[in-house]
Amino acid sequence: MSALIEARGLAKAYPLARTLAARLTRAQAPTVRAVNGVDLDIARGETLGLIGESGCGKSTLGRLLLRLHNPTAGTIRFDGQDITALSEDALRPLRPRMQIVFQDPYASLNPRRTVREIVGLPLALHGKLRRAEAETRVARMLDRVGLARAHLDRYPHQFSGGQRQRIGIARALILKPEFVVCDEPVSALDVSVQAQVLGLLRDLRAEMGLTLLFVSHDLAVVAHLAHRIAVMYLGAIVEQGPRDAVTKRPAHPYTRALLAAVPRLDQPGAARKRHVGGELPSPLAPPSGCPFHPRCPEAGPRCAREVPRSVPLEAGHRAACHLHDGGVT
Amino acid sequence: MSAAASEDRPISPLRLGLVRFAANRTALGSALVILGFILVALAAPLIAPHHPAEADLFRRLQPPAWADGGEWSFPLGCDGLGRDILSRLIWGARVSLLVAAMVIAIAAAIGTMAGLAAGYLRGWTDTLISRLVDTLLGFPYLVFAIGLMAMMGPGLHNIVLALVYKEWVFTCRVVRGETLAAREQDYVEAARAIGCRPLRVMLREILPNVLSPVLVVATFRMAYVIIMEASLSFLGLGVQPPTPSWGSMVADGRDFLVDAWWVSTVPGLAILALVLSINLASQGLRDAFDPRLHAS
Amino acid sequence: MTALLSVRGLRTVFPTRRGALAACDGVDLDIDPGEALGVVGESGSGKSVTFLSVLGLVRPPGRIEAGEITFDGTDIRRLSPAALRALRGRAMALAMQDALSALNPAFTIGTQIVETILTHGLVRSRAEAREQAVALLRRVGIPSPERRLDDYPHQFSGGMRQRAMIAIALAGQPRLLVADEPTTALDVTIRAQVLDLIDELREENGLAVAMITHDLGVVAERCARVMVMYAGQVVETGPTAEVIAQPRHPYTRGLLASLPSLEDPDRPLHAIPGQVPDLARIDAGCRFRNRCPLALEACARPVALRAVSPGRASRCLRAEEVA
After folding, report:
1. ipTM value greater than 0.95
2. CB contact (8 A) between residue A155 and residue B12
């Protein structure tokens, strides 16, 4: 069965402003490569967890797949159809099939619109339903996410963070999309509320047979929901595979560093592990060769010279590291 | 903070702002004063004791009622042609308020549309509009208006036009700034993700959120426009006699500033009172509606 | 060993339109020299306000209504504002969550450290102060410290800024460091580095640390003792390992059950139903009872924090039945 989402060589580069002198001499504009040559597949019904730290490009990647940003290179196929270069008008009929849930519950809802208008907007644009029918569907959707009919006429500022996130989820799902990008949907919520929203997502996923791209920096949250995990660093996917393979048998040094840095509840007062040092390099000046090599405890001479390619390890598990591709020398 | 959801009735941000405004006594008082001026202007035919153009040379430069030689039937005295200053003041309020309201309304409408387009569509639209804004801003306001009036001739409609020419620019700048900020918000991206066309995004999603600053700028600029109109009338370029305008009334008293100070001073004080109230009220509006001060 | 910081019955109140809000209500705590106490709670739990009160940083109209705060034997509530200011930064220091807004963007990092050192009269000359500042930056792991001393906060990355803030906090050679969510805004790998740094400093200088966070995992790894707060009250305290293995308050247990675990990702999460109560509209009874699976009628009356075993306390009538 072909994947629902297929990306090949996907890239997004932002050119930076050049000085007048640079423009006159037609010098190459320095670019920030937010996403740098990503290949990924998401099968129908699957949840792919996308993990990485800030600035790795995971949010940009999610938006690229929805064509909210335009890629500067590569292709995207949605349900077999190439959507890379489609115009806005051509994309419009596809929009109901792919949606997004945002991170910030305080910025993702229009403060001047009621819940009814916010959740009803997708229906108004695409549904072609009569008003009464639309209203019923909105009410039912609210009910499904755990809010009451009385909330229909209220404004976002009258709700807590968790409730606003539910409203955002209702809006994303009201047209029954096939694919939903969840961009850090619980990161801004209190811990006890996180569990509520995660439970809601889980239930809705099962009920509606959703395919999800779950973007987060929180490994534990991702592991809870994802079937497969992809790890991003500086715009590239350094490792991807089934959840257990990636979390229990990480192949890439960065993945190992991430896992080691996650605090664990079951080993209180654990002896301090050796944590990877250094900082995330500036995307303006990415390291040569493997983007992780300056911080990598296993790096060798080859790592600075050659960009590692993605090598298959076990079933469906790949890593972009010279360690698995002939060594680092 | 994660507080329990409000169990109250739906409270729109507009209502919240109005409640805050009403709680600010200075602002509320100023708003009432402005309302007073408006009512006086509307009721001019009913409450003005005399006809504003009725001249009586025997009453030329008659002092106000409390001074020597004054009468209570002409409470604020008479001008150089013996016309009752109070009545002219009341009728003059109409001109000042009407011009200000028309200019601000038209300028706000044009400025908002232009600002939205420039801020949301960016690219050539933005470049064009921004250059236009910068150019117009480069002209000194009064000189520009005088020039236009000289070309078009005097009259109420022409004043409005002359002032709108530059006034829309202020609203446009504010709206463009707010739009630039708003378009980065997630809820705008959500609208795009749902498939809203740009026009719809601008009008449905962004416009309601930039209206508060527009309101604040509009009321704040209103004071300025009143002074501009008064200045133009003072220079003889505004509404023509015998229609009274506060500005022209001040001009009328120029020659008698020492002997008959009331002819210029009374309309001058009226301008002061109105402008001050408008400024205080608009400050109150800004405090009440500014989202940065009252993050929920 | 006498506690370095001892708080009894702290109550800090903020007047709001809906009535007085006790952001922290009846808080007792002890921190020994060189100890790391984890203070865990979600938004509205009062964890930050508690320590802001201790440091004397609560701004009017909020005020401390009741309580005793003893630092190193001194009753600091009786100190004059000037004396408290001298104590703050010198003996007690604060490292906040968002270094970008905590650091003054208009001054270089060097200026801010040097000013702190000079203010507390620790050296005789500006040159000496600068030397100490360089040493501090080096100690917190900022490379090329002499050069970076003259950089502005926005020129530092997030992790470096946080380290710089810790350097400023340490400039006065404090005995207690209050770290309020110091790593929440940081990436996981950087977070680990900064937490390692705090651990090292604690061991080297005998620094006591109050680690305020919502992340139980951080507390589990770094803090020997933990204090759990909910809706302005302390609901449970004890050695971290014991509290996590056997919680004695339904909120703690609920919190632990709702956390996804990397080790056991398929474990179903049990969310705590309901929401945190509105602090302006609470009554005297247990504040957790409307969300608690063990609630009784008796919970509608005030519940005191009581010892349930040596070193462990809980504010629950049924503490023994919780785990």
Report:
1. no
2. yes
